[in-house]
Specification:
This protein is of the alpha+beta class. About 40% of the residues lie in helices and about 25% in strands. The strands form two sheets. A four-stranded antiparallel beta sheet has the order 1-8-3-6. A four-stranded antiparallel beta sheet has the order 2-7-4-5, with no helix packed on it. Helix 2 packs across helix 3. It starts with 11 loop residues before the first helix and ends with a helix.
């Protein structure tokens, strides 16, 4: 009779890879990765990233949807991700003592939430979907890795932040 008191040895590095996946699931994920890569490639701040690094970033992203009025992020919350808007519009809202103040509207190919990540600070504003919105959620760590490894991204982000400051001052 076999000894059942010992547990079978599992190679944890391979167990996930060896799971059977239907071909349709694999094709769907490959299409999704290619689609996310193409979305990122069209955004100016990511244009200077070499394709292999951009594909890795695309792999780490998650496509998310928001109905009108739903929040992407809330002022004061920890900054855990940036959002690249693929389709739709969102309002950037400052919570003030006299009530909410809409300071900007953002749309396709614009990023929100990166300021908190870069400054390692809580969210500076609330961002709320104005209409049906689709975005790529870029987690903090992959985003920061790209900024550290690709100086062109850092420069592009600084330019974008300077333009936002310029617009907010009415100059």
């Amino acid at each position: 009779m076999p000894d059942r008191s010992t547990k079978p040895k599992i190679d944890s590095d391979r167990c996930c890879v060896e799971r059977a996946r239907p071909d349709s699931y694999i094709r769907s994920n490959e299409m999704s990765l290619k689609r996310e890569y193409e979305v990122l490639r069209r955004v100016p701040i990511f244009a200077g990233i070499e394709p292999a690094k951009l594909k890795l970033l695309a792999f780490m992203c998650e496509r998310v949807g928001f109905d009108p009025g739903n929040r992407l992020l809330r002022q004061g919350d920890p900054a855990d991700a940036a959002y690249l808007i693929i389709d739709g519009h969102a309002e950037v809202i400052l919570e003030t003592p006299s009530g909410p103040l809409i300071v900007a509207t953002v749309g396709t190919n614009e990023i929100v939430g990166e300021v908190g990540i870069l400054g390692n600070a809580p969210r500076a504003a609330t961002v709320r979907a104005k209409d049906r919105l689709t975005a790529l959620r870029i987690p903090k760590e992959p985003f920061m890795r790209m900024v550290r490894e690709c100086p062109t991204i850092a420069v592009s982000i600084m330019q974008e932040l300077a333009q936002r400051l310029h617009r907010s001052n009415g100059d």
